[in-house]
Design brief:
By secondary structure, the chain is mainly β. The chain is about 0% helix and about 50% strand. Strands 2, 4, 5, 6, 9, 10 and 11 form a seven-stranded mixed sheet that branches.
Length: about 130
């Protein structure tokens, strides 16, 4: 079992920055890829970024490339999403998620169904 708790959301003006953090419990954190998703009102949950279990590889949706950066600290069981140059269209509830597959070095899952564990979400609001 993996429990995930996000923090760091808030209200920011366009062009500003926020750093989201996700704290994980359980012994399998370092054995799983981790991801961030977001969901805006009335829209489907959307993939944002993922990081491999050892942090060596990352993958982003095109709309956040060059602005967002995902990282992890396996010693502290945390994963972070640094968000810069925020835009109003980034407004959403952001979710941290843990891959359903263990012990795969190369996985960079980007589908909701790839993830077995989810946090409760943290609201990010970007004003124009």
């Amino acid at each position: 079992q993996v429990q995930l708790v996000e923090s760091g959301g808030g209200l920011v003006q366009a062009g500003g920055s926020l750093r989201l953090s996700c704290a994980a419990s359980g012994r399998t954190f370092s054995s799983r890829a981790m991801g961030w998703f977001r969901q805006a009102p009335g829209k489907e949950r959307e993939f944002v970024a993922t990081i491999s279990r050892n942090g060596a590889s990352t993958y982003y949706i095109d709309s956040v490339k060059g602005r967002f950066s995902i990282s992890r600290d396996n010693a502290k069981n945390t994963v972070a999403l640094q968000m810069n140059s925020l835009k109003p269209e980034d407004t959403a509830v952001y979710y941290c998620a843990a891959d359903s597959v263990l012990l795969s070095w190369d996985r960079l899952p980007s589908r909701v169904v790839d993830y077995a564990y989810w946090g409760q979400g943290t609201q990010v609001t970007v004003s124009s």
